[in-house]
Each structure stands twice: as C-alpha cells, then as structure tokens.
Amino acid sequence: MTTPIYKDTTASISARIDDLLGQMTLEEKAGQLTQYFHFGVPEMAADFDIDALPPEHRAFLDQPAAVETALEQGKVGSILFVTDANLILRLQKIAIEKTRLGIPLLFGFDVIHGFRTILPAPIALAASWNPDLIERAQTVAAREARAVGIHWTFAPMIDIARDPRWGRIVEGPGEDPVLGAAVAAAQVRGFQGDLGADRVLAGPKHLAGYGAARGGRDYDDAEVSDSELRNVYLPPFRAAIDAGAANVMSAYMDLNGVPASANRWLMTEVLREEMGFEGFVVSDANAVRSLETQHFAQDLTDAAVSALEAGLDMEMAISDAAFSRLPGAVAEGRIDVSVLDTAVRRVLEAKFRLGLFERPYADSSAANDVLDSVEHREIAQIAAEQSFVLLKNADHALPLSIERLGTVAVIGQLADSQRDMLGPWVFNHDTAETVTILNGLRSRLGTETVVHAPGAGILERKFPSAFDQSDPTITSTPDGWDDDAEIERAVAAASAADVAVVVVGQRQNQAGEGASTSTLDLPGRQQEQLERITATGTPVILVVISGRPLDLRWADENVSAILQAWYPGTRGGDAIAATLLGETSPAGRLPFTWPRHVGQVPLIHSHLRTFAPQDQSTRYFEEESTPLFPFGHGLSYATFEYSGLRVDRDTVTVGDTALVSVDVRNVSECSADDVTQLYIHQRHGASSRPIRELKGFKRITLGPGEQCTVTFPVGPDQLRYWSAATRSDTQDATAIDIGIGPSSNTALDITLTTTPAHIR
Q1: 449, 524, 658 from 661: Cα distances, Å
Q2: Which of 2, 160, 201, 381: CA 20 to 30 A from 22?
Q3: What would the pLDDT profile of 23-70 be if each residue is shown by its tens digit?
C-alpha cells in the first residue's frame, strides 16, 4: 500500500498539506478549524442520577462525551483545558487511530506564567525590565507544559493597559509600547523558540485594544483612535510576530464598533498584510458565537462566515461551535471553499511544524522528572527577586540586619496564603510546595524570632469569580472572622516586636479576568490596621501583594519602606525574605504609572503637553494630578550616579542614527542591578508628540565602585511614529530632547537635531 504524501516525512510541508487537503471533506476541514474545551470526566457514584440534574448542569457533565463523539467523527482539530498526561494521550489516540485521516490534535492551555512551577505574574515579569530573564522563565513554562502533551499556550497577553481598574492588567506588560514590545518578544522566544520537542506554540493576545475597555470594565467595548492604536496598542503585536509567533488570538470586544473577532481590517489588512503574520488566528472563548450576542451577526452561520472571511482561522468554543455550520455555508454559496482551505492550511502547517504527524504522543513517563525540576524552582525564585519594586526606603530601613533583629512580627492574611502567592491564571499548580512570606522569613530567622498575626480579614468579592468554582485551593477569610479581635492581636504583636512586616493587598481572585474594580483601596480593614500598627512606633516594612497599583498615599507618608512584590509565584516567599534581609538588592521598575487615587486614572507618563502644561500638576482642585510613583520608578540598596550624557553627533538626517551614551557608576558598597532608561521628547513635527517617551532600556549589574557606559541608538526605529495628519508612519525633521536615567522623571538634558534627507 502506497504511503500518502501527507505521511511522507521526506516531502515538503507544503506538499504534505496539499495532499491532505485534497482528501478532506468539508466537515473534516471545518473540524480542523474547531477547538473545544474538554472539562474532564468527573468521578460519580454508580447510582448517581444525572437525569435529575438541571439541564445546564447535565449539559456540563455531558460536554466531554459530546466532544469525544465529535472527535471520532473528525470534527475537532484542537482541544484545550486538558492537563492530565494520560487523558491527553487517550484523546490523541482517538484522533490518530479512530478517525479516517488520523490528523493529530493540537492541545492548548493557559500557560500564562507557569505550569507546575509558577513564575511571578506577567506584570511582575515586566517589572524586571529584563527580557533575557523573561525568556528564560517562559522556557521553563514551555518545558513543563510540553512534557504532559500540551502544544500551545494562549500567551503572552500583550495588551497595553493604561487603566489599572481593568483586572487583566496583571497579565500584561504594563502601559508602555516599547517595554511591552520587548516583553512580548521575550515571551514568544521563551515559549516557542525553534519549536523543538520542549517548546510550545506562542499565542499573543488579544488583537487588539482589549486593554482599553471603557472604564476598565472587562469585555466592554473600546474606542481607540488610529493614532493610539498604531503607536501604543499594536507595537507589542508587531514585536511578537517579528519574534516568530505562530498564533495570534483575537479579542472579545468591539473595537471602534466592529467586533475584533470579525474585523477584517484588523486581522487581514493590519495583521497579515502590514505586519506579515503567516500563522493562524484563533478566537477567544465563544467569541465567534458572541458575534450574534453582540448584534453584529444575524445568526451563528452568519457569525461563522463573517469571522472566517475576516481572517479568523480557528474558533474556540465550549459547545456547538459556529464553525460547524461552515460546510452548509459553502454548499449554499455563502462562502467560497478556498477561504476555508486557506484557514485549514494555516492550522495544518502549525501541526506539521510541531512534528505532530511524526511524534503525536508525549512521553508521560518522563513528565514528572520535568515537573519536579529543582532548576525550574530556582529560576522562579530569581525571576521573583528581579521583579520586586522598592517603592520607598526611608532612612535605609531596608535591608533588615539579621544581626540586629530581635522579634519580627509578620502581619496579614496574605503573609501566609500559599494560593495568593501564586496569583491568578494558574490551574495546574501545587500549593503544597508554595513558599509563603511567613515561611520564607522563618526559614531564615527561626520560628521563635518570627511571630505571625493574620489580622484583618480581606473583603471578599461582591460578585464571585467563575474560576473559584474549579479551584479547591482557594483562600478566603474564614466565616465568622472577628476583625476587631484579630486587629487587636495584630497590633499587640507589632507593638511587642522590633520590626513589623505588614503584608497588604488583594487576593489573587481580585485580579485577572472578570476582576475589574471600581476602587484602588485596600480591601477590608487593612488600611485601618496599618494605621494602628504604625501608631505603635514599631518600624513598619510594608509588602504589597497585588497585580495593580493600590492607594498607598497614607503609607507613602507614614511607613518606613514599601516593597511591591506582585504575585511572586511558587518561590515567592523565599524571594521576598531574601530581599528584605539583603541577600539580594531589589531592582524592579514600575511598568506603569502609579496613581495617587482611582479618580486620576488613566494616568500615563507619555501624555501630550497639551494647553497650559505649567498647570499639569494642578488639574484637580483638591489633589495633585501627578503620580504617587512615576513610570520606571524603583529604588535599590545601592546608589548609582549618572554622568557624561553625550551624543556622538549633534545633527543627523532623517533616516540616520545617532548614538547616545551615559556613564553609570555604583557608588555604594554593595553589588546591585540598575535599569538604565532612555527617554525622548520631540519638540515639533507633523503631530504633537508625548512629553516623555521610553525608547530604550538596559538592566545592568555593577559591583561596588564599578562603572560602565550604556549606549542607545536614536534613529528611525526610535523616532518614527504613526501620524494622524499624514495617515502614515512618519519621521520628522525636528529637535529631539534626550535623557538617560533611572525613571521617567529623568531630565532631558541634550538635544539631537534631525534634518531633512537629501532628495535625489
């Protein structure tokens, strides 16, 4: 029997796809474009009466069987949300051995910041300002996911977020397109690499503007100008594509009145024709079906046709996929089969590139060795240490001196919450191995030295998180918790101690998808408790656990030191303890502007000068309209001096590049990292430009007394922008003010003039 070309490993991928496409029915083609959730088969007693359940509960229990039936019929091309290696193996064998053509499945999962080893939350990774570290960290996530048979992650999330009320700010790179682009590319390289046996497809999301949802409310529509879309929200996607991303996920919401999952301009003209993307585009969960809900599509057939014609290649669905109606739409002449074939070709190419036709099965016997890797846990701790941002350190309150420490009071429920250390968007975690802040300090200082009082309860969500229902490790304040009594105990413990490490913030389910908020206040009575502890006179070190900025105005004025620790992951407690005790110096920098109050948002560093710029700080009559902490801010245990800012030429023609340099010296007695940041401002041109724009950065390590020179290019890549006046990418002949320093407050002390290029 002759081997089909599509199974011939010596044939080109293109030839193999041509052969396979020629043998597929319309139903099988639509199946390759369909991805279903598989929620697993729950264990039930033999006498359990499933028919007695309400219809929606019965449908949930029936869903896995329905998916497997469709799989056997060749109507499923991908499955998501399966993490058990044995179940993945069983489902893959159905696809290979029980379907007519034996096309392997793609298994996808939300490997956002770790699989078994949980890394710091993505916003924390961005705060490291270290692309090499981020790449290394996401390589760990990829190895662990691929070990159990997962081929594809729905990450990185690279939505620029400028409204911290939006819950998914925790998943992204922050507010800035240059930092965001660097983080996006690093994550793609880490996840995907060369698509070897220990890597997964990267799926940057959500195209595009999802982070601009009105009022910071998840899923609400977004109205984004062409200028802001192209200059702010799209650059991370371009960087991810340039790094080789094989997949892109479309967004849920309407962008400027057109749902993103059926937006041809966005997915075809911009993504493919302008950016050169050659991979496949998948919808977010049920987003194609939602086209009918959003009153864009007439019915589910119209939704499927609209999405496919716009450039969407695969539908992610829970059940009854809209794309199952595509064969009928082709038969009725509503869409040409060539459009279907183009999408199928893109999906099949990803499967061939992954080598799934040759190696469809993971070696489940080796999975535990990968998942239990000590090296992976060590990388997680390094990543956490590099992400912490020291917001304040009055009178060198940190690091704490072990030799001079007596009793340390550790206050707060978050101080000993394993689940909350991990943050949101983790589903295969092992909380038993998670190190809390309390455990990290006790392992270094001893249980007798470190006392703990959980103190005030953390106010629960008014509207529960849908993710909590499937998470048995969820942590919450116990029923009947006596706040008054527990606050008294916390105050007493702090009063009797030499120093109080007060841990405040939000639980992990108060960040992430479906976790937008109308306030940045500390939940519950944490603020009251902090004020009472501070009033005892015991020095207070504040550790903040969150994925967004919180209202720290009072704390900034009254406590000794503030460390923003994010959701630091599996080894977060060890990393925090190491930082507080000076084993490592913090060097994270804020990836967003930290507002004083929720009423200021959105507040960004790269705003325009506008009318009356001299009054910028007094726009509100009762409060400064300036940040509490600026973008790029972060302190260190070391002291760095910047000197000798210079440019290698005063004038360049448009299109040429100048080099800007600065000398950085560590003038302290400890080795530490610094993050050197380049900012510019264009004085005039076709459009008004932001008062301050980040255009380059580098994380450096200097020992005591060491000095290095940091150099950045300033040329077309840094100076080109999209102008609403010219309706195109533009570089002006103008004057560019330049500064290099430790935050966006850096002075712009030198000027580079760009002159018109010679016309030939």
Answers
A1: 48, 48, 10
A2: 201
A3: 999 999 999 999 999 987 655 555 555 565 566 556 667 788 899 999
Give the C-alpha distances (Å, rounded to integers) separating 184 from 122, 327, 393: 10, 36, 31
Q: If pLDDT is split at 50, 70 and 90, which confidence band does 617 have?
A: confident
Please name the amino acid found at residue 702: L
Average of pLDDT values for 711-729?
97
Question: How far is Cα 471 from Cα 482, in angstroms, rounded to an integer?
Answer: 26
Rounded to 5°, the CA angle 200-23-3 comes to: 80
pLDDT tens by residue, 160-182 = 999 999 999 999 999 999 999 99
Pairing state between β 651-653 and 750-755: parallel
Q: Which residues, at least 6 apart from 537, have a Cβ–Cβ distance to it below 8 Å?
A: 495
Count of Cβ atoms closer than 10 Å to residue 48 Cβ: 12
Cβ-contact 160, 135 below 8 angstroms = no
Question: Are residues 243 and 195 in contact, defined by beta-carbon separation less than 8 angstroms?
Answer: no
Q: Rounded to 5 degrees, what are φ and ψ at 645?
A: -60, 130
Q: Which helix (H) or strand (E) holds 366?
A: none
- Max distance between CA atoms of the chain, in angstroms, equals 86
d(CA 444, CA 437): 11
How do 499-505 and 540-545 pair as beta strands?
A: parallel
CA distances from 420 to 190, 432, 457, 474, 542 (A): 25, 13, 14, 8, 17
Closest by CA position to 212, among listed 179, 246, 260: 260
Annotated catalytic residue: which of 110, 284, 551, 574? 284
Residue 656 annotated in active site: no
Residue type for position 70: A
Q: What is the DSSP string of 533-594?
A: HHHTT--EEEEEE-SS----HHHHHH-SEEEE-----TTHHHHHHHHHTTSS------SS-B
Residues in the chain, overall count: 760
The pTM of the full predicted model, rounded to 2 decimals, is 0.96
The amino acid at 367: A
Six token digits for residue 27: 């139903």
d(CA 739, CA 746): 6
Structure tokens at 632: 């790029």
Average pLDDT, the chain: 95
The residue assigned the tokens 């992400």 is 387
- Please name the residues in contact with 676: beta carbons below 8 A apart, sequence gap of 6 or more: 642, 662, 664, 697, 698, 699, 700, 710, 740, 741, 742
Residue 128 φ/ψ region, left for φ over 0, alpha for ψ in the -120 to 50 degree band, beta for the rest: alpha
Point out which residues pair with 157 in neighbouring strands: 205
What integer pLDDT is reported at residue 351 of this predicted model? Answer: 98
